[in-house]
Amino acid sequence: MTCEDMPSETDRRSRETFARSIPAYASKGGASLWAACLVALSLVASALLPSCTTAPAGTAIIDEEELNAPPTPRAPRVTSSFGGTHRQSLIVGRVWYQSFENRLLFLDPQTGMELLDLELAPRGTTGVVSDFAVDGSRVFVVLADDWVVELDATEVRETKVVNRWGRAEITIAPRFVSIVGEDVWVSGNGGAIRLADALPHGAVPPEALRDPKFEPVRPEIFLEGRMAGRVVPAKGGPVACVGRRIFRVADGSYLGSASMLVPAPDSAGGGYAFALQATEGAQVGLMDESFRERSAGAVPGLVHSVRVFDDRFFAVNDFEVATWRLEPKIDASADGSSSGSDVVLGAPLSVPVKGARDVAKVQRNRFAVSGTFGRALYRYLPEGDRPGDTFYWSRRLPGRLEVSVTDRRRVLAASREGVWLYLIGEEAEMSDKPIEAPDRPIIAAETAWGSAKIDESRETVTFRIGDRAQVLAPSRGGLVSGLGIADGRVWVGHDHGIDVIKYDQTTGEVYSEERIRLDGPIVAMYPNRVGGGITYVSRFSGFGVIRLVDLDDPPIAAKGTRSAFDATRAAEAAVGESRD
Predict the structure, then answer these.
(1) How many CB atoms lie within 10 A of CB 94?
(2) CB of 501 within 8 A of CB of 491?
(3) Most buried in the list 46, 53, 329, 371, measured by CB within 10 Å?
């Protein structure tokens, strides 16, 4: 039917009159009243048809009310991610606790089966899990530089958050958490504090915070202004490493040299396992309770962890798990007998593991190993017909990526640990395809409102808007690795994540709209074909997609995880102390 064929107003009145006459007609003609009513209804419906438009077919219908409504605030958020680095492993009882990006995994140490994957904050809003400590059913977790979270793991599959402390409460940038006697210590950039001295987040009513006369409780800071490592027990009071030196926490007195200290069990002669890091490698070994070296060996590269299990000492770097058998020290007497009081390192043994970060004991002869490669279970010596020196279970994940290339639907990325093919927005799998010509980072970019270029030092980005220039540095310091353009914004990749730079037409200046926290540097950023935003490749945080989402939308949890945060906490984490 064409527009001209539609009934006129006169036709509609005629049909309405005709419809009113149908009952009388039906009674005279013998037709059923029901059929008459159907005819009447069809005529009335045609009379009420909306007025005709002459707009071409397919023209969009505009809702004036929606058009005039204020725009919904939107912000960049990580909407999906895959991969990342496993950092710390700890097996207590029947649970393998494993840190993984912004998550804490609870695993079965015998099989590697996942019991719980707990996401502690929305991806990109906080630092990664840099450390954790287990005290019975309580687990204290550090989200690097941002939060300390206390979990109740009485029922592992129902683990829940019971307390949390932010930068405002603990006053330092947390990196480590330690349990010394009855005290929980938090240390990091700025010193060390007893957690009991800090009020949990939300303990002070909002109205008190708004009171100008309110004085918040500030915990006492020890080793103030320094980068303090884990706090460990010692005679005369707890100690911590600052750089390559050991200091007593209470008074800051110097006690010896080490970059890392771990209390050693009595079977290893007591005292401490230590590492003393240098530029090209590290000295590792055993110290007595007075921090005097008893026995030591050398390990190349950066040492991430030292451990003592049963009769073996372990040191973990990026490409091996080095281990020494612990042996009694032979007295240099005439009979060559053992002194029985000292334990020393025997002959070294190397287990090659690309990307290793930590090791934990499953049972005698079996160990859990984790790192940028993923996580695995290892058998040292043969057990019956089962071979030794074997990884008998593993879960590979992309945790170290150095170069990449894309066809805008998939990303192929690689490092010395392997090649991964990532289906954008989904998951990645290992590939045997080589990358012959990797994509180069973008150092200069043009937008509708101006241009951006990375300076030669890679410490800043210069934005030019017309005849004006504006210089911005990465939000958390470090070096700029590349630029991306999407959604009218400039995306600046750097050592600690991505800064999303937006142009303000009112002021004529650019500003950082959002700061996405990732363990960089960022290898590449690719504009998405559909849906806006970018796909990122990060050196140590794997793959992911960032899009603009409504600020009112609930936080997005990683696929397959259980979230330990709600919308309120997520919003606070996104704009909280990480902005300081």
Answers:
(1) 10
(2) yes
(3) 371
Q: Is 39 helix (H, G, I), strand (E, B) or coil?
A: helix
Quick one: average pLDDT of 294-311?
95
Residue 350 confidence (pLDDT) = 94
Residue percentage of the chain with pLDDT more than 70: 83
Rounded Cα–Cα distance for residues 431 and 420 (Å):
5
Q: Are the beta carbons of 470 and 512 closer than 8 angstroms?
A: no
Sequence spans of domains, the chain: 3-51, 118-329+342-365, 402-439, 441-579
Relative to beta strand 147-152, strand 160-166 is antiparallel
- Torsion angle, alpha carbons of 295, 300, 303, 309, to 10: -50
d(CA 356, CA 86): 9
Closest CA to 541 of 173, 128, 146, 116: 128
Residue 450 CA: distances (Å) to CA of 52, 456, 569? 46, 19, 36
CB 461 within 8 A of CB 444: no
Contact predicate 94/363, CB 8 Å: no
pLDDT recorded at residue 45? 52
The amino acid present at 100, given as its one-letter code, is F
Residue type, 195: L
- pLDDT tens column, 327-366: 998 765 555 554 445 899 999 999 999 999 999 999 999 9
Q: Does 28 have pLDDT greater than 50? A: no
What single letter denotes the amino acid at residue 176?
F
Whole-angstrom distance, CA of residue 487 vs CA of residue 85? 29
CB 150 within 8 A of CB 197: no
Q: What pLDDT is stored for residue 5 in this prediction?
A: 47
State the pTM of this model. Answer: 0.84
Contacts of 74 (CB under 8 A, 6+ apart): 548, 549, 550, 551
> How many C-beta neighbours within 10 Å does residue 125 have?
25
Residue 117's contacts (CB-CB under 8 Å, 6 or more residues apart) are 103, 105, 106, 558, 560, 561, 562
571, amino acid identity? A
Fold of 118-329+342-365: Methylamine Dehydrogenase; Chain H (2.130.10)
Radius of gyration (C-alpha) of the chain in whole angstroms: 32
Query: How much is the pLDDT for 346?
Result: 94
- Give the orientation angle of helix 9-29 with respect to helix 33-47, to 10 degrees: 180
**Residue 215 clears pLDDT 80, i.e. is over it:** no
- Give CA–CA dist 554/79, Å, rounded: 11
Contact 56, 28 (CB under 8 A): no
Nearest to 183 by CA among 192, 173, 196: 196
Label residue 575 by pLDDT band (50, 70, 90): very low
Report the candidate in 215, 200, 76 with the shortest Cα–Cα distance to residue 569: 200
Asked if residues 448 and 489 have their Cβ atoms less than 8 Å apart, the reply is no
pLDDT for 267 equals: 86
Does the bond joining 441 to the residue before it have cis omega, within 30 degrees of 0? no
